[in-house]
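Quick question: what would this complex look like in 3D?
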Amino acid sequence: MALAELYEELGLTGEEYERIREILGREPNNVELGMFSVMWSEHCSYKSSKEQLRKLPTEGPRILMGPGENAGVVDIGDGLAVVFKLESHNHPSAVEPFQGAATGVGGIVRDIFTMGARPIAGLDPLRFGSLESPRTRYLFDGVVAGIASYGNCLGIPTVAGDVYFEEAYEENPLINVMCAGIMPKDRLILGRASEPGSVGILIGSSTGRDGIGGVSVLASQEFDETSAAKRPSVQVGDPFTEKLEIEACLEMLDRGLLLGLQDLGGAGLTCATCETAERGGCGMDVDISKVPQRERGMEPIEIMMSESQERMFALCSEADLPEVLGICEKWGLDATPLAKVTEGDTLRLFWEGEVVAEVPASALAQGPEYHRDAERPSYLDEVASFDPGRLPPPEDLGGAVLRMLGSANICSRRWVYEQYDHMVRVNTVVLPGSDAAVLRVKGSRRAIALTCDCNGRYCYLDPRLGAEIAVAESARNVACSGAVPIALTNCLNFGNPEKPAIFWQFCESVEGLAEGCRQLETPVVGGNVSFYNESFGEAIYPTPVIGMLGLLEDEDNRVVSAFKREGDHVVLLGDTRDELGGSEYLKVFHAEVAGKPPSLDWDSEKALQKCLVQAAARGLLTSAHDLSEGGLAVALAEACIIGGTGAHVDLVGVLPPHVTLFSESQSRALVSVAPSMLADLQDVAGDLGVPLHVLGTTGGTALEVKGLFEIGLDDMRDVYETSLEKMIAGAHH
Amino acid sequence: MKFGVVVFPGSNCDHDCHYVIREVLGQDVDYVWHGSTDVRGYDCLVLPGGFSYGDYLRTGAVARFSPVMKAVEEFAAAGGYVIGICNGFQILLEAGLLPGAMMRNTGLKFVCRFVDIRVETTSTPWTNSAKVGEVLSIPIAHNEGNYQVPPDALEEMKRRGQVVFRYSSPEGSVLPEFCPNGSNENIAGICSREGNVLGMMPHPERASEAELGSSDGLVIWNSLLAHCGASV
């Protein structure tokens, strides 16, 4: 193949090829060209997004490490730090759902222990097409099984996540994976090669031809009819080897043996070597003929581009090398010293004594940066002019609540989370099914709360507002569990950035995200951008998923979302407005994704969150549940179903009843409170200016809304708990 | 009492067992590496849950060949106390220390949730502090917990009081709909003839502190401590 054809095949543009020639002062050889193609792919270089991402706040008093390393690091006190990150594995999972999702988990977990942290929690935000489609059911079943198989084997509890079903994700599902880890602050290690003379060791699995070009071929192009043929680009996971790597690497770090640690993910050995060298301000000589190969006759370019899973790259001094190799042997892991850190900036690869590539590490690692054109898409005016008020209300409100509870986007996720081991490591003090997972921190009174959120419909209707709401809601979920939101990670899933309308969505979302971070003082500590989520020219909804970290000073202050006992007051914090635009109600009853998303007032939002956290700290709340999709009706029903108690409520107000029930107005939470605590809660809310409405009391075996309807607890539970399973089985409703 | 928590490559409930034994029960505990052949000095060995050797082959089928298992066999034969939890139970079956075998759950899915198990006998070192018919709320987390044993062997086990726990309703009724995995007669845990070796699929270490949702698992640990006359 001629070079010109090769670089196009590898996904590089003519312009980029010229730049490579300039950098090298000569024609690149095949190996070098392959390395540039993967490092300069959108996935690795962030060439389209970098300019925008600079707008995000990334600093704060608790932030020990922001974006740029493998994952962000946040100080939680008591000498401990939390490391967490969210990223995507969308395209591999669309091509091969089980292995795509499984290796997604493997990749994000490596990012966490690479920083020196013990991974303690996984979260998985997922987006699929309609469950009526057999393909969606196949993908959904495979993805959940893949996450379960990998996470369960590693012994990392999968504690939270979310799943939405929407036609926009039919061909291009989103499989985002998040992991959080914990460590003593002083175990923090970076992916840096900063000491000339030190040794680089490749640890773990051997290198095969699997996954070659994954970042450039799969992750950085749109989908079309040839995509199924890309299945060989998806890797196969081996969680057992990764489990051994976690234990071996943490043991090395506990003994203080490592100078740097980096996992091999996208772009494989190319990325691991050039990024560690670049970050450490050094060069590196690598003898790639030493790389253990899974199959015979691999070429240098294949070795450098392979994305074989479960490989780590560790840096240590010559003196510590024997001990590092000893630990690997103890855990049954292959370990091959093959690199030497050098002065300068040159990454030099050797193959049986011959130099086969010689490139500046920094140029390879930093990649190009593009300014993309952005233009407001025309669909926005059309969807914004839609007025939900013109539609007739449902005649049977009780029946409408039941129908909402059976909606694919609302019903219980038990079928999903029971396939995940969500209890291993004995930290999960609030189990899945509540607003946020809460994990105790052993050896401390503190606990962390984790959640992930994004309503793609809101983002489609108004990308900036949708992103702000994603930040607000994830923080509100954390606040409902009693925790203060302290930092976030994100995974920005968008279509093709070369299209101005898509890039406009991206820019707007980043602005919204930045605003949310500033308002809540929750910096972005890292994340991932996933572009080219399109198939046959159709983009997904803009979906900037937020992963939020919250901190509880005392784990005993945690609050769950379900009612707990009879005789508590049922209280709504926040005001309800006529806001059915973009709602689940509109989709379920009128098959519309249109209108204006609910408005967001940051002062009200911050006051509500403060109120929730203060009330939790004073032990005033029996339960607290965020109001989101399905509004007050769904929040009430969920609190009853999960808590096993009914409630009697009276919805006074001027809005039509179906609006009061299903409006998705922001900055609201449904809480229950013991009669003796109500006055104190009123004081807290009053001081903060949070509107407080006493709706009724818990008790009985039905949800009774005075003058409107009464639905039995058993009827609600039956619909809520069985709908997802029936839909997966393909039973038509 | 002195406990040893065996660590196989791929064990992942080893830390949890270690934590509960030390922090909750206040007992001495060490990790015992799978390559070790010396288990002298321990009163009880714990084979924890996890995915030993990835469970890429039949669960527990590789781990039973670990060097430590010969020592565990000798330890059990000499009357030492051995508890296998989840993957540890599977390993005990593969090693022949307990009768029967595991198949995949009838639902063909991994299942993680709290289940109710009924105490079938209190004549074991593991249940002497419980009441017969007492129902314990303890989580399961497994893909292969479908316990099978030939009918005649099962009759023998029942006659000898080796069936220790059965999946049940919260009220203690043992019916097929309360069995999460298809096990013979809802069996959740069994012991050896002598009673010193216990295998169970539910995880008592995950139900030893109220903040995790249940402390019902404590009755198992406390029974053993009482049986051995350990100070708590």
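Answer marked as accepted. Residues 134-154 of chain A form the longest helix (21 residues).
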